[in-house]
Amino acid sequence: MIDRIVTKLGPVLAGAVALATVGATSVRAEVTLDVLYTTPGTFNALHQELAKRFTDAHPDIKVKFRNPVASYEEAAQQILRDQITGRLPDVAFNGINQIGLFVDRGLGSPLDGFVAADGGLAGLGYYPTLAELGKYKGKLYGLPFATSTPVLYVNADLLSKAGVDVSALPRTWPELLALGKTIEAKAGTAVTGFYYQWEQTGNWLFQSLVTSKGGRILKADGCSIAFDDANGMWALKTLEAFGRSGMPNLGLGQARQSFVAGNVAMLADSTSYVAAAERQIGGRFQFKTVAFPLAVADGRLPAGGNVAMVFAKDAERQQAAWKYVKFATGPVGQTAMVNSTGYMPGNEIAVKTPDLLGSFYAKSPNHLTSIQQLPLLTEWASFPGDNSLKIIEVIKHHIESLVMGKRTAEQVMPELVGAVSNLLPKCGG
Amino acid sequence: MVDAKASFAKRSEEHWLGWLAVSPALLLLIGLLFGPVAAVVLFSLTDWQLGSFTFNFIGIANFRTLFTDPTFWKALSNTVIYVAIVVPGTVLLGLVVALLIEASPGLRGFYRAAHFLPVMSTMSAMAIVWGTMLHPTIGLVNRALGAMGMSGVNWLRDERTALLALAVIGIWQGFGFAMVLFVSGLKAVPQPLYDAAAVDGADGILDRLRVVTLPMLGPVTMFVVILTAKRSFEVFDSVRVLTQGGPNYASEVLLHRLYTESFDFLHMGYGAALTVIYLAIVVLLTLTQARLLEQRVHYS
Amino acid sequence: MIARLPDRRIAGRVARHAILILTAAFALLPFFWMVSLSLKPPEEIFQADFHLWPQAFHGVENYRIALTAAPMVRFLLNGALVCATIFALQLLVCIPCAYALAKLRFHGRDTLFSAVLVGLLLPPQALAIPHFVLLNVFGLLDTYAALILPWAISTFGIFLLRQFFRSIPDEIIHAARLDGLGEFEIIWRIMIPMTAPALAAFGIFSVVAHWNDLFWPLIAVRREEISTPALGILLFRDDEAGQFFGPLMAGAVIIVAPLLVAFLIAQRRFIDGLAVTTAK
Questions:
Q1: Please, what is the Cα angle at C135 between C255 and C210, to 5 degrees?
Q2: Cα Rg for chain A, rounded, in angstroms?
Q3: Alpha helices of chain C — where are they, by DSSP H?
Q4: Does the beta-carbon distance from B36 to C130 stay under 8 Å?
Q5: Among A66, A78, A253, beta carbon nearest to C239
Q6: Given the DSSP bridges, would you call strands A264-270 and A91-95 parallel, antiparallel or unpaired?
Q7: CA–CA separation, B106 vs A307, rounded Å?
Q8: Which residue ranges in chain A fall short of pLDDT 70?
Q9: For residue B140, is pLDDT > 90?
Q10: Who among B157, B248, B263 is closest to A251 (CB)?
Q11: Which residues have a Cβ under 8 Å from the Cβ of C36 and sit 6 or more positions away?
Q12: In whole angstroms, how far apart are CA A266 and each of A179, A181, A255, A292, B63?
């Protein structure tokens, strides 16, 4: 009786066990790289294409993708969890601001050796400024994959209804706010005159305000707060002004959707969305990008976007991972990247070669705005210590209270500084 | 006539067979259910971190952190409010629809199917659709309101309405389930009862409802309320997909908080303490409801 | 019919239809919207005026992107595999247990049944942390096993089946025993066929719950190739997904369709199954 059951079930159970462990073990002759990237809406098609092209050129290296995550913060959370469960990806495309976060925890392999062996940074064509941003504590950990700067997206049609031409756009925030109000009055339909993407990942557009005024987020030692000065206060006051002007709480995705629907006149956002915006506007109105207003002549802008990092520890996998990183951040990979998104390439060879990107910028002036801001790039700061990600959330909530018109800059500054200080580790540690 | 010896042998064989039959289930009950519950309680009392091999007992320190965290209380109160909106909404809507469907034969199959579809659908996918419908300017809902001369708000990003919007989505998904249960309950009401009531003068729709239908639906209603309450306490998908607990924790709920703290921030001790509280609430709630409603319902 | 309308029959019926159409529209609106968006080109998705049917039909392109940008079919297959395996395991474990609880006498039977009742109260998500740790210890995270094993036991299944088994008269079982059938044969040849509706109902609950589950796959799985439907659909999506909205909606349609189609085909079975469960 029982053995009848067992003989019937035996093969079923065995099959189930075999199936179940299919994922747990992987014994392969060639190398299969485990790659993590973010923002699938923007990057899905691009990464799939890059992986295909790479494997065509390197048949012994396969590329498999993990489920992409929505944002850099989520990617960081997952990678930290992976460190504990022993399942790190081989290659990851992380926010530029997170290199320190990983390296401080012993994650990420230095790329200096690989780069030197393959011709050096200059030989491989990387923009020096961008390559610098991939360094941490003297070593290179990340190579630029998709870089961005903040720009102003402008609906030129709505502007001309208010009698203003794009080329005559004001260059200070109070004036832009006032212009936004005029546009709202003259538009004839319900529109939002001005929107500022304060919710951008890693407090990027808060940092943009501070640096555009010549200020810093962290002091040169990398672990004490520097935004508690006049520059930081100016940034908070500007955000407060946004709130008091009645800016709605739209959120990242919604604001972009509203813009391409023609309901927002001016949007301060990352250049990363430009290509998608053009596709979705489809010529329904005139869309132009304008440089981000600097508050002082020598103001700076934090470089946004992501870099390619290698997390593999095994030598053979590192070699394979390096080849993939070199490809993705090289001329071919960067050309594909620029063609499908609004990000800037990190590779000069791509831009200078006629067959690659040579003629692209002539045809797509909206992408050029960000490139022209390249000389202004500075670091996108991230906070050291265990609470790096929590600090980003804390800052975001304080900014939200400002842009929602709930608090004043004077109220927020001491609380913000206090909260962040509590979450920072002791310096010198 | 079975003699004593044979019945005794049979009895012990029955015991042995019984234990054999339940042993896989028993093992899994311990390994996958009660063991983990004990483990969670244990985690909540230690400072154990995922990946480490040592831990210390720190007593109720995790609970103290939990109870002094305003985010926890916000999540708790939000969850209670959510349940308080979704349960009556779902039950009432489901009951009304069930009564209407059963009132006459026209198109019953179509109505039943149409109302039940949301129950079968994958919430994470449908939440994305709801997100587009609730967009403040170009979303369907606000455009419809605008066409009727009213102005809509930014449903998912306004602190006042985010939880409400999620509650409506919760009702949308659940009322078809309530409806089906009520329909089967209605079918079980014997016609003679209505005839008897009619003889006694209870002939109108409302009278019939009051005297026969609703009392007879007592047990089913109890079942629906308990089930709906339990399901709405477990709300997660729509929160994760649409608001992630925002804006500013206005739509943060217990299970989402549990997920974020345990798996995003890796605060295992906090997460375990939160789990213990969550477990206690759901178990107590279900038991209390069952007890209360049982007292008020007649089993005939 | 349980209620006869008074003389104003027609007005009553019209009112009934009017209200039911409204509530049905509420239930169906997101589905229509989803399909509508899945057929539109990017320029039309965010435009200010409203059309249900696209002006430029872009459905083929959207569905093509949806199927190629993320392995939608793979997600569906994973869903089918995972749900079927879970249900099979549940049956394997629950049927003998339910039978024993219903028909056999042994020490501790009632205690065990009380334990099952307590288990019914426990929300499964509360066990996520220990399940995660357990799977990590055995190195099974991010595998099909991780998706399946925690669900191998179902207290709901045990409870439901036990109630049904109890309702089968003891005489049948005694007769079978006298005929020389062993216990497992009794289960196989008699109990299961007689409680087929309950098994079907249980199956429906189980499959629907696990097909639509987001919480556990989100924790247990990283790789695309073993992701289940509810998890898979999120792979397209982020704040910058504006450009992929059409394909995103197409993906949503693909994910949601199988269960809906199955339901529409087997409506009677679903709804009767629910009714049957309630009765017990």
A1: 25
A2: 24
A3: 9-38, 42-45, 59-69, 72-103, 109-121, 128-137, 144-148, 155-166, 170-178, 183-186, 192-194, 196-211, 215-220, 229-232, 245-265, 267-279
A4: yes
A5: A253
A6: unpaired
A7: 62
A8: 1-29, 428-429
A9: no
A10: B157
A11: C52, C53, C54
A12: 9, 11, 10, 11, 48
Instruction: Mark yes or no for CB contact C236/A44 under 8 Å.
Output: yes
Nearest to C268 by CA among C193, C195, C194, C204: C204
pTM score, two decimals?
A: 0.84
> Which residues on C lie below 8 Å from A200 (Cβ)?
none
Give the chains touching B; criterion: ≥3 Cβ pairs < 8 Å: A, C
Which token pair is A344?
Answer: 């800037």
Cα distances (angstroms) measured from residue B55 to each of A105, B35, B62, B263, C136: 21, 19, 13, 19, 18
A152: contact with B, CB 8 A cutoff? no
Q: Tokens 């305000």, residue?
A: A209
Task: Tell me which residue has tokens 């004001």.
Answer: A170
Rounded to the nearest 10 degrees, what angle do helices B4-28 and C72-103 cross at?
Answer: 150
Comparing A28 with C233, the larger pLDDT belongs to C233
| Confidence (pLDDT) at B289 | 82
Tokens of A166: 């794009």
Enter the CATH code of domain B61-296: 1.10.3720.10
Specify the pLDDT at position C7.
61
Query: What integer pLDDT is reported at residue C276 of this predicted model?
Result: 67
Q: What secondary structure, in 3-state letters, does B234-290 show?
A: CCCHHHHHHHCCCCCCCCCCHHHHHHHHHHHCCCHHHHHHHHHHHHHHHHHHHHHHH
Cα atoms in the 13 Å half-sphere on the side-chain side of C122: 24
Average pLDDT score over residue span C65-79: 86
Per domain, the residue ranges of chain B are 1-44, 61-296
Using omega within 30 degrees of 0 as the cis cutoff, is the peptide bond preceding B247 cis? yes
Structural domains of chain A, with CATH: 31-148+303-378 (3.40.190.10), 150-302+384-423 (3.40.190.10)
Return the residue matching tokens 């999506």.
C237
Best mutation target among B90, B121, B193, B262 (most C Cβ atoms within 10 Å) is B121
Give the chain A residue nearest C233 (alpha carbons): A67
Q: What are chain C's domains? A: 9-60 (no CATH), 70-236 (1.10.3720.10)
Query: What interface predicted TM-score (ipTM) does this complex get?
Result: 0.87
Q: Which amino acid is at B47?
A: D
Residues in chain B with CB shorter than 8 Å from the CB of C152 are 28, 32
Point out the residue among B17, B124, B183 whose CB comes nearest to the CB of C104.
B17
CB contact under 8 A, B158 and A249: yes
In the chain, the amino acid numbered A111 is L
- Could you say which of B102, B237, B262 has the minimum Cβ distance to residue C2? B102
Both tokens of residue A188? 């004839």
End-to-end CA distance of chain C: 24
B176–C27 C-beta distance less than 8 A: yes
HEC secondary structure over A342-401: CCECCEHHHHHCHHHHHCHHHHCHHHHHHHHCHHHEECCCCCCCCCHHHHHHHHHHHHHH
C93-96 long-range contacts, Cβ below 8 Å, gap at least 24?
A: C93/B24, C93/B25, C93/B28, C93/C152, C93/C153, C93/C154, C94/B25, C94/C153, C94/C154, C94/C157, C94/C158, C94/C161, C94/C202, C95/C161, C95/C187, C95/C191, C95/C192, C96/B20, C96/B21, C96/B22, C96/B24, C96/B25, C96/C184, C96/C187
A115 contacts A61 by C-beta, under 8 angstroms: no
Instruction: Note whether A400 and B247 are within 8 A (CB).
Output: yes
Per-residue tokens: C241: 């997904």
Nearest to B122 by CA among A72, A260, A35, C233: C233
pLDDT in tens, B51-95: 666 778 888 888 998 898 888 999 999 999 999 999 999 999 999
